[in-house]
Fold these 2 entries.
Entry 1:
Amino acid sequence: MGTFARTYAAAVVAWLAVFQGHLVSVACHDSNYKDALTKSIIFLEAQRSGKLPPNHRPSWRGDSALDDGKEANVDLVGGYYDAGDNVKYGLPMAFTTTTLAWSAIAYKSHLQAAGELENVRAAIRWGTDYFLKAAARRDRLYVQVGDPVKDHECWVRPEKMKTPRTVLQINASAPGTEIAAETAAAMAASSMVFRGTDRAYARRLLNKAKLLFEFAKSHKGTYDGECPFYCSYSGYNDELLWAAAWLYHATFKSAYLHYIKEEAVSAVVDEFNWDLKYAGVQVLLSQFFFKGDQCLKSYKDQADSYICSVLPESPYFKIPMTPGGMIHLRDGANTQYVTGAAFLFTIYGDMLQKFNQKVQCGDKQFDSTHLLAFAKQQMDYILGKNPEGRSYMVGFGNNPPKQAHHRGASVPVSEANLEVGCPMSFVRWYNKDVPNPNELTGAILGGPDKQDHFTDLRWTSVYTEPCTYVNSQAVAPLAKLTCPSIKP
Ligand SMILES: *[C@@H]1O[C@H](CO)[C@@H](O)[C@H](O)[C@H]1NC(C)=O
């Protein structure tokens, strides 16, 4: 993270059904949303660190950071760069993985019908393979590779970087409850994704998730090692609850439910992001309330409060919106709040439908239709239905951005092996008002300001920087929009 079509076809679902008494196959053919879904996953491939597999799609990327971990005599090759720079930050990487895993669980049929399930699984595994390395030793988790200050003084592609690959860890004497618990959540959720296809791998993930949760719970302390880039402002209670909820979902062990009911702390909030997970846990736990666990009613009430603050038709609506109708909480990767809301509204909307439930906001009631319509409107804004009439996803739709604030995308392949020092790198590849030579396909950029205005310049990073967790949260809403009539 840096320092900080208009002609939209109506949703068309084509059922490729050979109807001989039974349905043989279903394909989803809203080509616009399908295209956006495919591309949103391709962007995550462009963020991969380490040794790339042969089927890697962004052709301008190569192997990078193959010595990561060496400084500490451990193997930390792999994982994701978070945004436009070349640092691997544990907290947002884990959140990216958790939200992808939830998408793969909740929208498995949609992703399968769209032909994207394997790509999403591969994206999750790119995270969990790394976490298995980072958590190889008990009561220790490697949480960052790279020196953000030095990295930000250099504008070079990750394949060519020479800045220090400083390794940070948390352990019993230097705890970091947020990161340990978020990584536990990521591994527990991911274990559910791989259960059906790779049991041994799923078991390894779940075992590690349990240990990390115990570690997080028994060694409490806020971690500020990723500050000022990823400071936890909200503390660790949300991550502990989130991890417990995912572990309960993955195991149905009463100890986790007991923790959720007796020990965890919850709060009403009106946003969902890499730092603040309460709204997500509340939605997640609501399904167990709907299935009959009356003790979890307070989570359903809190999930409703979240919806009531965000849904514009609600009497308690209170979050900032642009005149053109996009959530705008703050400049700097603002689209994360847009996809974050679309993500929870989609999942909760489908859950309400499945259990025939509604949300009560004062004297007004909202059902699944309202929630899904809001999620669609937020995604449509990003994809082109906005006052500027342009797409905010690179390589998609009408007039997409050309100057993503992204090191790899801005260095031409023809100059990939050029030796350029850090100061000159900015002159050569950054300070030029020209399109990136490499298309950062599928990246949803930070997006417009609070007046719906957008500046497509590499150095306005608050508007043009992409982040993995903006895209990870777009996968579920786009999967839903691709195949609206598949029942969750
Ligand atoms: C625990 O982590 C701290 C901070 O990262 C580090 O300074 C310390 O050496 C670590 N302790 C052990 C036993 O490795």
Entry 2:
Amino acid sequence: MSTRQAFERFFISILSVSLCVESKPMPIGSRESNGLARTPLMGWNSYNHYSCYPNETIIHSNAQALVNLGLKEKGYEYITVDCGWTLPDRLANGTLTWNPALFPSGYFALGQFIHGLGLKFGVYSDGGIQMCMTGSPAQNGSLFHEDTDAQTFQSWGADLLKYDNCYSDAALGYPDTSYTPTISPKGHYVTMSSAISNLTRPMVIQICDWGVDFPSLWAPALGNSWRIANDIIPYFRTIPRILNQAVPQTSFAGPGQWLDLDMLEVGNNVFTQAEEQTHFSLWAILKSPLVIGGALKDAATSISSSSLAILGNEDVIGYNQDSLGVAASFRRRWTEAGYEVWAGPLSGGRTVVALVNLLDVATTLTVDFPDVGIQKASSVKDVWNGVAVQNVLTSYSASVAAHGTILLELGGTTAAGIYAASDATVSSSTTTFSKVYAKTTSTNYISIVNFTTSVASSTTVTIGSKTYQLPANSKSLAVPLFLAAGNNNTITIKSSLPLSTLAITNPPSTFYPSTNFTISGTATRTTCSTNLCLPVGSKIGYLTPTRLSPSHHPGTLFFHFRLQIHQHLFLQQRHSDLHKLGIRHQYQEHDLVWEVAFAINNIAYYLEDDAHQSASKGNWDYNCQEGPPVLNSPITVRNIKSRLVLLMILFAISVIAVASC
Ligand SMILES: *[C@@H]1O[C@H](CO)[C@@H](O)[C@H](O)[C@H]1NC(C)=O
Ligand SMILES: *[C@@H]1O[C@H](CO)[C@@H](O)[C@H](O)[C@H]1NC(C)=O
Ligand SMILES: *[C@@H]1O[C@H](CO)[C@@H](O)[C@H](O)[C@H]1NC(C)=O
Ligand SMILES: *[C@@H]1O[C@H](CO)[C@@H](O)[C@H](O)[C@H]1NC(C)=O
Ligand SMILES: *[C@@H]1O[C@H](CO)[C@@H](O)[C@H](O)[C@H]1NC(C)=O
Ligand SMILES: *[C@@H]1O[C@H](CO)[C@@H](O)[C@H](O)[C@H]1NC(C)=O
Ligand SMILES: *[C@@H]1O[C@H](CO)[C@@H](O)[C@H](O)[C@H]1NC(C)=O
């Protein structure tokens, strides 16, 4: 058996074992039962601005402002009173009640007020023995009272329940927060979701367990959205941190089930205008609920017109509420240059693309459309720059402020890699294709030149400086081609026959040993265990995130090389393995994304962060191990697949294997 065969057999056996014996892949059920939130919910919530100190006056004034400022018309609908609303203890008959000092008219009246504005009423509780609370007093949570509380919320006219996760870990004696519980918080959500389903009143359920135990795998059946990460905080570094945590799970979003990136900080005067645009753009296109967390209006505060314009941008809201309901996904990150690209499909054959500037300085950025699967767009709308252009081939450049985002809506697009002769320059027998894109520099591209007609004898065709023979009666010629990385290759083709298209096929993927990568700093090369690092390679440990770019974003990975992420193929295939990895630790601002798959020189790597770490500690390992994830292992980055085609075949085989289990 060759090394390759051994590798394939090993991989297949791993897949079969993990899929057949361990656990059947979990179907990602959608919460069809309540029929709510078919598009991401939009609204306002008290927490980001007022913390756990809401009261009737501020809820009234903000709800009224949502209407008066025109935001209700734009789709913002749910007014949710977050933590701090209740009394320490239940009533003698066991029901929760509001704190009358804060809500003198009571919660039923509050619901009536909100409904009277044509808005919907969101309530808050917690699946632990106490609710989350900043400061005091401690307040009873819903654990063991789910049915009663659901009925109480219904009696008040609630339309939404945000359900938190404080004081919920029985095994540890119910601490305030537990990011590494011994059992999943899922059980508490199963119970409350069941209690809500038993009601006659439809109620949106917002699961808020801060991403503990990878709720993307179980929350879609229990709620309409689920938090994927710890709380947003009022510093820009929170944005790349939460986005990093979204990277491996955007595919779990869909109608009725959305990844919740947390409430918006837009309007809280903590971000620049460009940062607010980045925050709002990415939350919108990832199909997060858009829940305003700023004070719109109270005795002390009025939202700025700049923030209001961002929250009210109809293009961006439209991307969030698009009928297709597909979340944008991470496509590529340039760690050294400090920017990244996200993109996703929209209805009407459109595509939304976000080019995020992570640098602390303004710059000009270029998006190469092939990085998002597109060659040409008949229309490009540059939302924040207010620019619209037609017929853009291969790439688009624009300036962007520090931490800003170029947000593009592309229409009338063609598939990457195919260049029409009608877009080339034709001069007698010479056709010149410009703006030809190559992901990497290689002599191994294949170009396929198609002609509009054929002739009965063979013809000479010159491509660049090389001459080829087009066989008699043929309309298509395939030849190898050198292309330099970038969007500015020019290919000149001389032929007596007119051309129709030039199609470029990427070079086949190649294995490279880890010795191909330069290591520095604390990084070390270490030996792989038996059967790991197949078919080539060794492991590099202790990669310290470096700061090669002039900016510093603890929430962002900084490696010595560029990353291209191909997480989807892998993650969609192996949910059961993902579940085993789970999110075993919750990372705050200084921690990096817990798992990401990416490719370097067409090698895909899987990167796992299985221990608490910080940017200062920086402790990434990566290797090219092939095999199942190992629980409780030190931090490792694994090459889980090298050839995407091979992987797809392997996946097909494993599906057959599962079907035959
Ligand atoms: C309500 O909250 C606002 C803003 O924090 C505060 O100024 C006001 O005093 C509070 N009112 C009551 C009755 O607690
Ligand atoms: C408990 O008492 C409150 C206050 O009297 C009342 O509104 C509520 O309906 C009671 N709950 C039950 C379950 O009887
Ligand atoms: C909550 O309820 C329990 C009884 O279930 C009670 O002992 C406790 O004091 C209550 N209050 C708080 C703040 O936990
Ligand atoms: C919901 O109703 C079902 C069927 O009556 C019952 O078995 C279940 O316990 C109820 N759920 C809750 C949380 O009360
Ligand atoms: C080029 O011609 C080949 C052979 O007819 C065909 O399969 C292919 O789809 C054509 N390519 C394009 C881009 O039209
Ligand atoms: C693109 O290439 C052409 C020549 O092939 C060169 O003149 C031009 O400056 C290049 N443009 C950029 C932006 O590099
Ligand atoms: C990787 O290293 C091998 C030798 O170890 C070398 O032949 C090859 O060209 C290198 N590949 C790249 C892409 O640097």
